[in-house]
Amino acid sequence: MKTLKITLFTICCLYFGSSFSQYEKTWSIGLGANMIDNDGNAFGNFLNIKKGWNTLPFPNTLTIGYKYNDWFKFEFMEAINCFEKGKYENGIKMTRPQYFYSTSIQAQAHVNNLYNKIMWFDPYFNAGVGVTAIDHIVLLQPNTGLGSNFWLDKSIAINVQALGFFGITQVKNNFIMYTIGLKVAF
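Request: output the structure for the sequence above.
Response:
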């Protein structure tokens, strides 16, 4: 049954996405959910959701994007989250909730033009800079990552992204933010 669902989903994406072009629109706005992996163990607990991931109910991420051309897009992202009591942040077990706010601007390089354009699949690399505030501590942090838009029609896409935020003054301020959301282009 699971294989049948995956097959039907794939066929629908190929059929409906084959004739849609995401490059006709200039602006986009998105709402989504973010999950932050900030347990302080760079690769030892990778994807250990129970121990180190933090999230709030949907939506907790807002994006506004501007397409400069077929290759480049600029995107503003606002995110909120909470490091929950009992989870780990930078290797320290939280004894109380700590709130997280992030504002960043990123440049995205869309790589779909490098090969045969698959209109429904729109992968990109991104890099930018942001300001994060964790429980009243404000940090300037460069970020980089990758993601993709999966276009359902000419204006609506499912967006998935992974961004690494890097501490400038302390390595312990590094974290990964995963986002998934719905994007509308206009």
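The chain has a mean pLDDT of 82.
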